[in-house]
Design brief:
The chain is of the alpha/beta class. β5 and β6 form a beta hairpin. 44% of the residues lie in helices and 19% in strands. It binds adenosine-5'-diphosphate and guanosine-5'-monophosphate.
Amino acid sequence: MGRLFILSAPSGTGKSTVASKLLHQVDGLRKVITATTREPRPGEKDGVDYIFMSREEFERGIENGMFLEYAEVYGNYYGTPKDQIERNIKENVDSLLVIDVQGAFRVKEVFPEAVSIFLLPPSLEELRRRMIGRGYRDSNMDLRLEMAKKEIPCARFFDYVIINDFVDKAVDQIRSIILATRCERDRVLRNLSSVLHSEDILSLLKGGRCYVKET
Ligand code: ADP
Ligand code: 5GP
């Protein structure tokens, strides 16, 4: 069974940057391509960065139950399509969901076993610099900064908190979380025969008794 990892942070913190490096470094992890009604930025590709939709298409999607969650962020709709997550779970591939903070809470309500990771900027000043670097100077930057001040306290409700001062460090830490999750007892024991090929150890794990607890 694939697991769901939610990566969330105030806009401009570095979610997309960290996510794209992470996806190159972790096998069996697939990004969920979310849908939006905003215009593509230069270099962004439909079906790769986002599924770009018109407002009418998106609203039809809402009516048809296409989204696990959706939100209006900075005047545009953003939504998580259900079908990709369902497919990943079936194919035993982990899903990486890069979404805003309110979306993260909604997903966690539907999938309480999802692992939520909050990425923090090292300071508000650095967040501002990153927003300018990303070209947000004219697109609601003050609004995004005010929103960041309301989003940062939400970190305490996430399973993990990572400071994105250096991209490679943040990527390493998130990679460690994903790899550790894959070693969780229940996850390993549920799929034993696909990960362990030793018949004698398999039979001890299945039928043996723990000499400390079960004598
Ligand atoms: P988000 O997806 O959270 O909105 P981006 O990944 O688009 O943020 O990053 C915003 C800007 O900050 C980009 O210009 C990116 O290159 C830069 N950035 C991301 N992480 C770091 C970091 N650790 N140090 C310096 N700059 C960073
Ligand atoms: P941007 O327009 O800068 O790419 O994204 C704006 C914000 O919307 C970001 O915080 C981004 O993570 C968030 N976002 C992207 N996809 C989704 C989604 O499917 N659902 C929600 N709730 N937020 C999303």
